[in-house]
Amino acid sequence: MKRIYIPLLSIFLLQACSSDVLNTSPETIKQTAQFYQDQAQLEQGVSSVYGSLQYNGQYQLAMLAIGEIPSDNTYDEVPANDSFTYGEFDFFTIQPNNSLISNTWRDNYIGIQQANIVLNRIGAVSMDQTLKNTRIGEVKFLRALMYFNLVRIFGDVPLATKETTDVNEYFGQGRTSADTVYNFIETELKESLNLLPASQTQKGRVTKGAALGILGKVLITRNKFSEALPYLQQIEPLGYSLLTDVTKIFDVANKNNSEIIFDVQFASGVNGNTEGSQAYQMFSPSGFVSGAKGHNLPTMNVYNIYTSGDTRRNAYIGLTSNNVPYSKKLSKPTTAPIDGGSNVVVLRLADVYLSMAECYAVANDFTNANLYLNKIKNRAGLASVNLTGQTQLLDEVALERRKEFVGEGHRWFDLVRTGKAISVMTSYFQNTPGYGTATIKPYNLLMPVPQDQINTDPAIKQNPGY
Question: Whole-model pTM above 0.90?
Fold first, then answer.
């Protein structure tokens, strides 16, 4: 179990799932049957939902890797490391038995099951109603976030919205349509808005701003730009602000700063240096630090798109003595390479501003589109622009998103939702040495369903092409 600032529930409550969806073992049922009897136990349960975000299949490794390596932003320096697990994403040769794909499915459903348990039992717990509403809002948000990630990666996925005590309930039901899952996500996030506070006294907890922002991103993903904009517009007045110095955004000494709306918490140097994140070691160039694996490194292509004077290049990307790019958004641990203390940012104000710019551009409101686009450009030391064409503005927003969020797990999902993944990656392969055999096909826009899920329940069918 990885460390977050919020105390975590004992791991036996989170080991309920095996390879099948939301599996709860009889032993775990016995252990949890009498749990959640008071507020203290309920708080532990809520903390365990947060804790699931730190798993390898969620924000410790998977969301950063799956959101970047299939794109032109990052690549796998040493594909053979870890049995080609990450290299498969680089060349679109992903197999249904890929361990990261399996972990992604499993670890998200572990979190979803824990969220379902909390939401099922919180009503009977005696506690202050305002606090209870806040916790319900937090857990609904977290469950919606996990489903959002699942549906973006796999498409149709089983939709489980109640505590599972008998796995046979889900056998034979197969996958729920992506539209139905997205509708559920929207409903969950809208309900959480009325329950969440504008701010939290404890860092790392969900706030109303996070729900507004992720709801906006969900709606944009569904091409509902006019619906997304009013939610995004409500975030700026909540007190968030861009940092003037981009080098401070990911500084571990400046965690949870005014630009961060929601991030997954990690701490280094806890319990014998074993509870931090593996991301720094996994995503550092080979030989850069002890045991570095060379996965998910920035490409020279993205390094070279920063123009002169753009402060983000040197703030976000470094070069080794051999001119191999590496991410500066992951700080070197002071303890051990596997004990990273960098938080993983899920949503920050720069994302909101560029999302707003995109919404305004789609609506042909070029004044406001330029306004929010220029907030990001100016912060990076670049001159303002005054673009007057929708296509030109959308292209510029996409370029700024690529430069601003390199390594944060957004680029692949941006390419897919805008319909540019195949054309961009085909061009990238044709113009980048080492990719002579790489191709991207329409079916690659979704990842394969883990084979262990299909083996467990044949009603869960594979995505076409795999």
Answer: yes
